[in-house]
């Protein structure tokens, strides 16, 4: 069985049994393989723009004798999206991700986006919200000493608050602690009431904010 990094595992956790998934930028194909080996999705398509990356995925899939369609494609361009409801994109920057998602024709049946961007999370959340998706959940993962944010967006009429789009859901105590300890420049800008953590922690932050502003 394929063992995933904590970072990739956080993407898999948002996939449901009936989802029909495309893993855009699959690279070695590990996430797609994990989903199929563990029977976590109804269908998985693995795609990449880079022929070398896709060939690695194809070899890894063959070795395990799995049923995963592979497609060489820039974003969604060459992918048959008629029965795909879920797009996974991770390990790219927000500009590339938004460019891929701007393919409106291909996005018609997509009601779920699982995204892990390398940068510009505020722009990512705001832009995807404008496309009619609701930021439903976020996982904050520390993998090899680096923090990653995996976001789940669901097509919906519901709209996130401005603060949620600016700062994210901040629903992870460990990540909030990291902000307190290491990212005081970010921390000072976040409205205190936005932290969804225990009151004791809230007071700790307030004390810290006061200390910073002095
Ligand atoms: C850093 S790797 C991340 C791989 C994997 N998704 C992960 O999170 O570990 C980025 C992958 O995205 C692919 N990629 C970059 N731009 C792409 C695009 N426009 N369409 C499809 N794949 C793309 C690259 O070839 C590369 O394999």
User: Tell me about the biggest sheet?
Assistant: 7 strands, mixed
CATH class of the largest domain: Alpha Beta
* Silhouette: globular
| Helicity range | 40-55%
Ends: how far apart?
Answer: 54 Å
- Our count of domains comes out at 2
CATH architecture of the largest domain: 3-Layer(aba) Sandwich
- Amount of beta strand: 15-25%
Determine the number of helices (DSSP H or I, runs of at least 4 residues): 10
Strand order of the largest sheet: 3-2-1-4-5-7-6
The CATH superfamily name of the largest domain is Vaccinia Virus protein VP39
Unreliable residue runs: none
Number of strands: 7
Indicate the structural class.
alpha/beta
Gyration radius, rounded? 18 Å
Briefly, what is this?
The chain has helices at residues 6-12, 30-37, 51-64, 94-101, 104-107, 121-130, 162-167, 173-182, 184-187, 199-213, and strands at 20-24, 43-48, 69-72, 86-92, 112-117, 133-143, 146-155.
Describe the protein.
The protein is of the alpha/beta class and 214 residues long. The chain has two domains: 6-160, Vaccinia Virus protein VP39 (Rossmann fold); 170-214, no CATH class. 40% of the residues lie in helices and 23% in strands. The chain contains ten helices and seven strands. Strands 3-2-1-4-5-7-6 form a seven-stranded mixed sheet, sandwiched between helices. The longest helix has 15 residues, at 199-213. The mean pLDDT is 90. The structure holds S-adenosylmethionine (SAM). S-adenosylmethionine is lined by residues 8, 24-25, 27, 48-50, 53, 74-75, 90-92, 96, 100. S-adenosylmethionine (SAM) is lined by residues 8, 24-25, 27, 48-50, 53, 74-75, 90-92, 96, 100.
């Amino acid at each position: 069985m394929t063992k995933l990094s904590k970072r990739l595992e956080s993407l898999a956790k948002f996939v449901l049994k009936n989802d029909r998934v495309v893993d855009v930028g699959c690279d070695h194909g590990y996430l797609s393989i994990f989903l199929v080996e563990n029977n976590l999705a109804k269908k998985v398509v693995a795609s990449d723009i880079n022929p070398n990356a896709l060939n690695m995925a194809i070899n890894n899939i063959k070795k395990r004798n799995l049923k995963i369609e592979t497609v060489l494609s820039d974003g969604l361009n060459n992918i048959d999206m008629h029965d795909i409801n879920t797009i996974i994109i991770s390990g790219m920057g927000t500009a590339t991700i938004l460019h891929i998602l701007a393919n409106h024709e291909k996005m018609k049946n997509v009601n779920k986006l699982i995204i892990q961007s390398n940068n510009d999370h505020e722009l990512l959340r705001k832009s995807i919200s404008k496309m009619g998706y609701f930021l439903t959940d976020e996982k904050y993962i520390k993998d090899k000493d680096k923090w990653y944010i995996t976001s789940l967006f669901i097509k919906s009429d519901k709209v996130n608050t401005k603060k949620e789009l600016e700062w994210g859901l901040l629903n992870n105590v460990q990540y909030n602690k990291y902000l307190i300890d290491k990212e005081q420049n970010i921390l000072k800008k976040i409205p205190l009431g936005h932290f969804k953590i225990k009151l004791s922690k809230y007071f700790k932050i307030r004390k810290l904010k006061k200390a910073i502003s002095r």
